[in-house]
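USER:
Try writing one entry.

ASSISTANT:
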Amino acid sequence: MSRAELMGYDDLKRLYFAERPRDVDGLANSSAFYHSRKLLRQVFGRFDFGLPDNWPKDYFLENLFKGGELCILDTELGVIPLKCGHSGLNVYEEPTRCIIANPILGNLEPEIGTECVLLRINYDYSGIMPIVERYAGLLAMCDSSLAVTLMNAKVSFIGLVSSNNQAKTMKRMYDKISMGEPAVFVNGDTVNQDKFFFNNVKQNFVGEEIMRVKRMITNDFLTEIGLNNANLDKRERLNSEEVQANDEEIRNNVQHWLDNINEGFKEANAMFGLNLSVKVRRYDSELSESNRLSTAMEE
């Protein structure tokens, strides 16, 4: 078999684009995919949607947040949301039609504003994957660094011997010590001739620092999606400017998404007689943190 036939897709891509080193890939790896799905679930859980019972919630959330837009229109199956693209420009350079390619309903191009509503989360009709992939890549690199430091922590003993017989003797000695024998006896000349090194693995172990960095990255992502977090390092006393700056940053980042969704829901409710709604979900821990911040500001 040729070299190309033995290589996977990622290896072929790296070979074609001359990517080096081959093992450094911040996004196209299993750890990044894991964190991407985990971060997406946190975004989905941030909002509490009021949707019709016949609307699949997973389909709605995935296509709205990942794709950035959904088309709400009346079909032979009723008023439903469908994955879409868009085309055309009006005088304000906004799209005029939705483009839908559905395996059941076929190809549709309804006019926005008269036949359908184009629901979006960002002003430019983009999704949130650039944010999610950025933090997923950073967390994946932390995982890689943690794996390396854990592997290095396993190397704690090195023995230099002068012959195979001495190596076998020292291996047997180490086996007995590992098995917990209270007394181990070897030839004194063997010990004197050989050299042994006990590596200081604790000195090179940075696992705790990596975990701290992961928490910082996660906290930054939580701020992006409007969740109170530990970015203020849980200091006992905070001045009012620090508290207000963190609180404002949290509210502003999620408010843009909420405003755009509410605007689309308002149009869809008026056009199709629906009762769509959305609000930011508040968690008990978040409410407790808000109370703590309010108390800090009063002090």
Strands lie at 47-50, 69-75, 78-82, 85-87, 97-102, 106-108, 116-120, 157-160, 195-198, 277-280. Residues 173 and 212 are 39 Å apart (CA to CA).
